[in-house]
Amino acid sequence: MTIRRVLTTALEPTIIRRGLRYSAVVGTILVLINQSDAFLGGEFGGTQICQILLTYSVPFIVSSVSSAQALLAHDPDRLR
């Protein structure tokens, strides 16, 4: 299984939608856990925005790549 094939599969619309759903749920929970002090303290700035974007991107990437790998492992014909 090559990295190129995993990335190509990860860009399929169904996988992207699934990644966005997981990212919305998991990312929001993580933002509330990690950034609640900044929200409550009124100290919200550029650093927090970068952290929030990274917080949402990690579950999206993990979900997309793992979904692509699972599809490729389950369906060997996709490897061609």
Can you offer a commentary on this structure?
With 80 residues, this protein is an all-alpha fold. The chain has one domain (3-79). Helices cover 82% and strands 0% of the residues. It has helices at residues 3-10, 13-41, 46-74. Helix 1 packs across helix 3 and helix 2 packs antiparallel against helix 3.
Pattern of helices and strands: HHH
Main sheet specs? none
Count of alpha and pi helical runs: 3
What is the straight-line distance between the termini?
10 Å
Average pLDDT, rounded to a whole number, is: 89
Tell me the Rg in angstroms: 16 Å
Beta-strand level of the residues, as a percent range? under 5%
Based on Cα principal axes, name the global outline. Answer: elongated
Helix content: over 70%
In terms of structural class, how would the helical and strand content be classed? Answer: mainly alpha
Low-confidence stretches: none
Q: How many distinct domains?
A: 1
Number of strands: 0
Q: What topology does this entry show?
A:
Layout: H1 3-10, H2 13-41, H3 46-74
Which descriptors apply to this entry?
80 residues; mainly alpha; 3 helices
Brief sketch in words of this structure:
The chain has 3 helices and no strands.
